[in-house]
């Protein structure tokens, strides 16, 4: 409804009327956090210095709004809040002691504080109010001198930041989009798969610099939003396609006690690279791959055995081998193993099977029992079919 109102009355957007992107529960959580944070911040100073002193800086209310309502903003991070407020208080006190209290000195205090925020990389809007408070705050503030920067400003800022961080960790259970991965897991100079075409982080940095103004979002957060929007667009195009729709169902599985030779034979006979390891209830307890066999083939460069000879030695223990030699799948399998649910959207597989370097993922049902397997090939086929089925756009 709010979206329709904004679309019908574009002048509201021109006035800066904000779109509502936060639900009622999150708003209540932010308000409660701000109240508790300010209460603890002011209460601590009240208890330590008494009601007759300046125990809470008024700009802390503005800092609380940023910390609790816009926690992802670059303006609401610990460095800008603490350093910005501390520096602004020092500037304000210095200006007052030099020029006294006047409209000119208040303006200079706010301007000089902003001038220093840029090189110190601590732009924090409430810090401008801190600088002005040091000039026009009256006798109670002026008597504190430069101590005003430490108590209450620096102390208030530090406690408020600590409260905001703790509150966020305790109460915020929102599942964020899959993080953007840029490092190549193979430790080569190639970009990660999702960074090889289309928009890159360097493009975002260049675009933000081209506007030559400070944005209330950093390039990393912006990239995460754009990638998530891209994933939502793919999900819309793929419709209701879930992992259960593209997974292989007729699976070859092994158990913990399956002999290594039997598992190796299954891998070769069925021309597959991974075998899910399940228990008696068919719940996934691990996965065994070709790589797991190679890891345990005793690849010692000091001997001259071929790879085939080492594998055969792993699969067929000789009487002279030590007693702790591996013999069953459970001794070499990878565990725990990442799984996906049958109802997970196919687009959720993209980061896992590309940037994360996974080749196959077991699919489990509502009771966590193995029901299928999805591979990179399954994902490529699904995306290709979705792209092929999309009608061409009209010119």
Question: Would you write up a description of this structure?
Answer:
It is a single chain. This protein has 395 residues and is mainly alpha-helical. Helices cover 53% and strands 6% of the residues. The strands form two sheets. It has a three-stranded mixed sheet with strand order 3-4-5. It has a two-stranded antiparallel sheet with strand order 1-2. Strand 1 (274-278) and strand 2 form a beta hairpin. Helix 5 (78-99) runs antiparallel to helix 6 (103-120). The chain is elongated and about 90 Å long. The protein starts with a helix and ends in a 6-residue tail after the last helix.
Q: Structural class per helix/strand content?
A: mainly alpha
Task: Find the count of extended strands (DSSP E, 2+ residues).
Answer: 5
Please tell me the total number of domains. 3
Assembly form of the protein: single chain
Uncertain residue ranges: none
* Silhouette: elongated
Overall mean pLDDT score? 84
Which range does the strand content fall in? 5-15%
Rg: 30 Å
Distance separating the two termini:
32 Å
**Sheet of most strands:** 3 strands, mixed
Share in helix: 40-55%
Number of helices: 17
SSE pattern? HHHHHHHHHHHHHEEHHEHEEH
Q: Write out the strand line-up for the largest beta sheet, numbering strands in chain order.
A: 3-4-5
Which characteristics define this entry?
395 residues, mainly alpha, CBS-domain, 3 domains, 3-stranded mixed sheet, two-stranded antiparallel ribbon, 53% helix, elongated
